[in-house]
Structures are given as C-alpha cells and as structure tokens.
Amino acid sequence: MNHTCPSLNCKIPHHTFDNITQITNQTNIMKRFNKILMIALILISGVGLVVSCTHKNDPLPASVVTGVKISHGKHIHLAGMTLGDTTQWKFDKVHSAVNWSSPFLEVGADLTGKFNQFGIADLKDALMQNYNTTKQPVPDTSWAFYENEPAKTHFAGYIQTNQVNTGEPGRDGGCLITTFGTTKIVAGTQNLTVSNVAHIKTTSVAFDPLSNGYIATFDFTWQGGGSAQVTQSISGKLTYIPETQVPGATYSDFGLKLEFQINKADFGINNTEVADKVNIVVNANFNNK
Amino acid sequence: MNNSFLAYIQKLEAMAFFSGYALVYTVILFILGNRRLKGKLSDRIISFLPTSYALISILFLGFQLKKLYPDYSFEHIQLTIQQPFLIIWGFLPVAFLIPALNKRPVLSLLHSCLFFYFVASDLFFQAITPSADNNIVKNDMRVLAASIILNLVVPGLITMLFLTFNYLKKHKPVIVKKLVNSSFILSLFNSKNHK
Questions:
Q1: A49 to B141: CB separation less than 8 angstroms, yes or no
Q2: Number of neighbours of residue B66 by Cβ within 10 angstroms
Q3: For testing the chain B interface, which of A38, A49, A53, A54 should be mutated: the one with the most B CBs within 10 Å?
Q4: Are residues A117 and A190 in contact, defined by beta-carbon separation less than 8 angstroms?
Q5: At what angle are helices B105-128 and B3-18 packed, to 10 degrees?
Q6: What is the dihedral of CA A64, A66, A68, A70, to 10 degrees?
C-alpha cells in the first residue's frame, strides 16, 4: 500500500514511510537519553562542587584573643622569722637561686652561672662586713608582697660575688675573682663587704600592662671592677607564683621571679669572655612553715 | 612517594584531558539540538566534537611523550607509566580521526564516561564515608573544571578555524583557494565526512 504525499503530489512507498518513522523514533530516544545523561552529569558535578567547597570566601571567624587575661588576686605575704607562725613567710634560700647568663665571647651560646650565697636583706653600710658564720649572715626579711597593691610591694637583696659558680672551680676561684675585683672565699665566713656584694633595692613596683606580672624598678649597686660603688636604676619583670599548699604537707609555698639585665661594662667589668649584657634571673621561694 | 601515589597522579592527568568531555558533549548536543537553533553550523559543530576529542587525545599523547623525554626505552616506559590501561584508553580517541568512527560521536561520549565515572565514584565514596579525605573530591573537581575548559576550547578553536577557512574560500581568490582546496584541509572539513 502506498501513501500520497500532498506537497509533492506523488506516491511514497509504505516501507519508506516506516523507515522515516523509525529514524524519528530513534532520534527522539537519543535526544531523551542525551537530556537525562546531561542532567545526571550536571547533578553529579554540582554535588562534587558543593562537597569540595573550600569555603575560602567565607569571612574568617573572629580572631582568638591571644592577649594574657590579666587578673590579680588579693594575696598578701609579709616576712617573718618565727617558725610555726603561718602568717609569717620565710625565705627558702635552699630552694632559691640567682642565675646569670651571657653569650660566650659575645657571639656564642650562653655561658651560665649562679651565685651560691645571696639573701633578701637591705644591706645598709653598717651591715656590710665579714660574718663568721656559714648560715645566712643577716635576716632575710627585707621584703613584702601585695598581689593587688604593687605600690606596697618592696624588696631588697644581695649576692656575694666571690660565690660565683659556673661549674669550673679554676675559673670561679681564679679569673672571675680578679674580674669581679674581690677576694677569694674564706671558709666559715660570709663576706658582705662593699667589694664583694652586689645589691638591689626597689624604688617602685607596678602592674605590668602586658602580662599578669609586675614591673619592678630598683637601684642596683655594685662596685664591680671599679674602685667605688656604682648605683644604677634598673627595671625588671617580677612574676608572682601564687601561694599553694605543698602536697602532703601542712604549709604553703609561693614564689617570686625577677628577671632583669645589667650592662657589666657600666660597673667596670671589661673582659670580653662574655657579652656586656648579662641576664639575671632570681628565683625566690618562700614558705610559711 | 610510592607507586600508588604516582598511579593516582596519572589518573588525575588522564581525567584532566577527558573527564569534561561528557558534560560538554551532552550540553552542546542539548543546546544545538534545539529545533530553533538547528542549522548547518550547529550540525557542523556537533560533528566536530569527535574530531576535537581526537585532538585532545593527541594532546594527551604529546603530554605522555613529553613526560618520557628523552628516554623512550621500554624499561623507562614501564617504570614511568603506572596506569598502562588508562593511558592506552586515553590514546584510543585518536581513532576518531578515522571517518568511519568520526560519524559515531556517541562512541566518544561512551569513551569519556569512564573518566567521569572516576569523579562520580570518588564522590560516592566520599558520601558513604564522611570521614574520608575530601581532598580527593577537591582534586577531582579541579581537574574536571580544567577538563571542561579544555573540551570547550578545542571544539571552539576547530569551529573558528572552519569558519575562517569557509570565509576565505568564498572571498579570497587563487592562492587561498589553492590552500583551502588542499587535500589535508579538505579532509578535515569536508562536509561529506560529517552527517
């Protein structure tokens, strides 16, 4: 059977018409397949895009406050010597230290040392003498600490320069004695004479605006390599390690840490074994035994 | 760095060349297959897709040769190529320059689907194991984006070349016509090859 094509006014064989219909159907199926595939591909890519989103354009979260949270308690520690009185705080010399460090030959790593004999006492002229004792020559009571009222805080202290200890006996008892312009240790005595002590006394203590500590300003007095004492006003950082009961004991302990720097050349010390700038750290422990 | 890492890198390289083609192909076919846009040019652009895919495969071949340079010994090839089947699969589209295969663009789509499958599978594993490292999907998406751009640029360039030669053929005399009528260019753009 033939079909009539109205536009061409001719007869078209039936099988040709069937072929055209078949091709049209195939094209439609392909188009539909293509559309479904396209949607699937776009969807998968879209999901991938969301999953792999790095959020780089998101606004950054508020920055973490890195500053130290400053808070001061109300501890008050006052010096005393009466054993058993827990309101009186005693200097624990055995568990304290005065350490120093300075770059070796002014360029190397730090050369470090400490002073074996020191105390917390205000060395007035009358007290600056030789003491025939192996214990603390003067009471370590020249201090007071007010955690929340730094203006009331004060302290004074000293070191005996011939008691320097770098771990090398030849150096400590030899060249350093000469450098410090002092005399060698005499057994059984505590030498607090002018030429053998360096001492400090606070002139003001204030809150450190940048930390939880304090800024202590004090007079540093030392004869050093010179012929007369030199006094210099120096500022250092004072840190309070709060009072805590010692585990397993009936007493408490607190600490003070003072860090400062001196220029040894200002005190007549001119050797080049260490740099002029000498860092000093005082770790003082107190208890109320 | 071990072999599995190198194999992963080579998979990504192959995906960068071929994974975007499926998306480009279906979108172009969808847009240009629209009755309103139907015309000689749109038909021609669609017919260029397998050729452009073949050109991308040639680029991939060149990339592999560049990686092997200057040592093309069998040992070096064996050592360098960690994904031999994938690399061979990547070379296959060169065959779309053969007119008989060029007439079947759907084959190029099927070929590219393997590379898109890698993207889909990584996405699937990321979905079922949220603890998995989503850097893999990030890499896939970056590579897919690069591949889509490549697969858009190459047919675009071919179309532009075709239009330029067509224009020159119609408007320039003698020398250009000789050039345009040269057998190689004719073989590329001869309408009898594309239906």
A1: yes
A2: 8
A3: A38
A4: yes
A5: 130
A6: -40
Residue B7: strand, helix, or coil:
helix
Question: What is the average pLDDT across A33-52?
Answer: 87
Three-state SS at A125: helix
> Closest Cα to residue A118, out of A133, A132, A139, A97?
A97
The C-alpha atoms of residue B62 and residue A212 are separated, in whole angstroms, by 66
Distance, in Å, from the CA atom of A250 to the CA atom of B160, rounded to the nearest integer, reads 93
Are the beta carbons of B30 and A35 separated by less than 8 Å?
yes
What phi and psi values does residue B73 have, to the nearest 5 degrees?
Answer: -70, 155
When CB atoms are compared, the residue of A30, A42, A48 closest to B141 is A48
What is d(CA A118, CA A136) in angstroms, rounded to the nearest whole number?
Answer: 8
**What is the average per-residue pLDDT within A126-139?**
91
B54: closest CA among B12, B108, B5, B13? Answer: B108
Read off the pLDDT of each residue in B88-102 and give the average, rounded to a whole number.
92
How distant is the alpha carbon of residue A213 from its chain centre? 11
Question: Has residue B107 got a pLDDT over 80?
Answer: yes
CB A256 within 8 A of CB A238: yes
Compute CA distances A71 → A14, A74, A148, A208, A259, whole Å: 100, 10, 9, 11, 21
Whether the ipTM is more than 0.90: the answer is no
Task: Kindly report whether the global pTM for this prediction surpasses the value 0.90.
Answer: no
Digit-coded pLDDT (tens) for A216-271: 999 999 998 888 889 999 999 999 999 988 888 888 999 999 999 999 888 888 87
pLDDT score of A97 = 95
Flag whether pLDDT at B194 surpasses 50: no
